[in-house]
Prior knowledge:
Blueprint: H1 5-13, H2 16-23, E1 28-30, E2 33-36, E3 47-50, E4 62-64, E5 70-71, H3 73-81, H4 86-97, H5 120-129, E6 131-132, H6 137-144, E7 156-164, E8 173-183, E9 189-196, E10 216-220, E11 227-229, E12 235-239, H7 242-251, E13 257-259, H8 263-267, E14 277-281, H9 286-301, E15 305-309, H10 316-323, H11 325-335, H12 338-344
Helix pairs in contact: 1-4, 2-3, 3-4, 7-10, 10-11, 11-12
Amino acid sequence: MGRHPHDLAHHLSREAEAVCRYYLSNGRRQGSYWMVGDARNTPGRSMFVRLIASRKGPAGKWTDAATGQHGDLLDIIRESCGLLDFRDVADEARRFLNLPRSDPAPSLKVTHNKPLAGSPQAAARLFAMAQPVAGTLAESYLRKRGIAALVEDGELRFHPRCYYRSDDDSGTEIWPALIARVTDLKGRATGVHRTWLDPDGFDRVRLGKAPIDTPRRAMGDLLGNAVRFGVADDVLTAGEGIETILSLRCAAPAMPMAAALSANHLAALLLPLTLRRIYIARDADAAGDLAVAALTERAMQAGIETIALSPRLSDFNEDLQTFGLGELRSALQLQFTPQDAIRFIGPVVTKWSR
């Protein structure tokens, strides 16, 4: 076995999932990535380790969406073990590589007619298999959350029998699901987001989502990308959740918007080169504050004006359900610039004061 750092990193990359299971035990596999809080094995979902080589790069490379840090599997060994000297890191890497494997190495055979689970190709296939939202349980779910318009949007679809597994060791369940397409700045599909739904009703605890551990999940290449509604040119509104952005679209349907799917992904959202102003729809929690701060800093460095949009309650969908569409329009008119309020909302009679 080579002693050069590149040789060690290469050998580790061939065991990427085993490295993650050993050193990042607080994380879990989702599709072709290992997700964890950070390289020190903190529980969470902001760090992504690529387990399978793809067009985006080799296996073993990772990015922390919360901090922008990135590295390889040697960095993970260093951080998770608290090592300072590279000689100690290399010794630990060699020790790990000499450990017996409890599971057989994955087959190198490639089945070309079946996309890898969690890949952009698998996501595109799932979206293609889904149907329009109108007249489905997905439309009912959105309407019960106050989102009565825009259900015909091409970025949203419905799948009546979408597979769900709570983890790699669990059996497969089948639930209906709202499917949203994730795209990059050029409009190319890179993934999907699934919201599994409860066909038996809409209660106040689950708000219509299926009674499973994680009723919302995304798959594919997500970092920097988003579920996009409209094509952004000079102005964009970006937020975390799909329901948040759809609520704002009900109030300002002409405004281009993007749902980044989480606070960490909102912080890492890629912005169009033509953009001159971005509205950041924050969720009223600590993660939302951090996302707004991170995206604001990146936007300002690019010369883009940033304006944070604040809900009255926890998020804009809760505002829509509690106060109604007219009040939400009034709130946005006060928070948009005057020219954008006229351009994207128009005259609003109802007034809302903080």
